[in-house]
């Protein structure tokens, strides 16, 4: 066996050993999946369901509503922005204000409401 074949065989064996020791990482926390400066919507509350997936991320300050499509009906919103508040419009006309660095769950709303719009405002307080 030539030098080239020996090196190829050694590298191949090292790769197979490394591949056999791959460990899957635990599901990412909501803070890891929704970094600053995003506003993220989830279909389930990440505190109750660590594997909750993001249905949408927004980061642009707007003067009007951004109507939700994929995030419509989300159960939870997280505002990672430092100085901006987020207004969430519900299908019945109610509007929630989510302060910077905070979150809001809609799961226990009575009556049950559907999130259908978002507006990020440069206001520092609700």
In round numbers, the mean pLDDT is 80
What is the total tally of β strands?
8
Strand-pairing-aware structural class: alpha+beta
What is the third-level CATH name, the topology? Gamma-B Crystallin, domain 1
Can you count the helices? 2
Strand order across the biggest sheet? 2-1-4-7
**Overall domain count:** 1
End-to-end C-alpha gap: 74 Å
Q: Which blocks of ≥5 consecutive residues have pLDDT under 50?
A: 10-31
- The CATH architecture designation is Sandwich
Q: What is the CATH first-level class name?
A: Mainly Beta
**What's the overall geometry?**
globular
The main pleated sheet reads as: 4 strands, antiparallel
Strand content: 25-35%
- Report Rg: 22 Å
Q: In sequence order, what are the helices and strands, one letter per element?
A: HHEEEEEEEE
Please bin the fraction of helical residues.
10-25%
Features:
single chain, 126 residues, alpha+beta, Gamma-B Crystallin, domain 1, 4-stranded antiparallel β-sheet, 2 helices
Short description, anyone?
With 126 residues, this protein is α+β, with helices and mostly antiparallel strands. 17% of the residues lie in helices and 28% in strands.
Structural summary, described in words:
With 126 residues, this protein is an alpha+beta fold. It has a single domain, classed as Gamma-B Crystallin, domain 1, CATH 2.60.20. It has 2 helices and 8 strands. Strands 2-1-4-7 form a 4-stranded antiparallel sheet, with no helix packed on it. Strands 3-8-5-6 form a 4-stranded antiparallel sheet, with no helix packed on it. About 17% of the residues have low confidence.
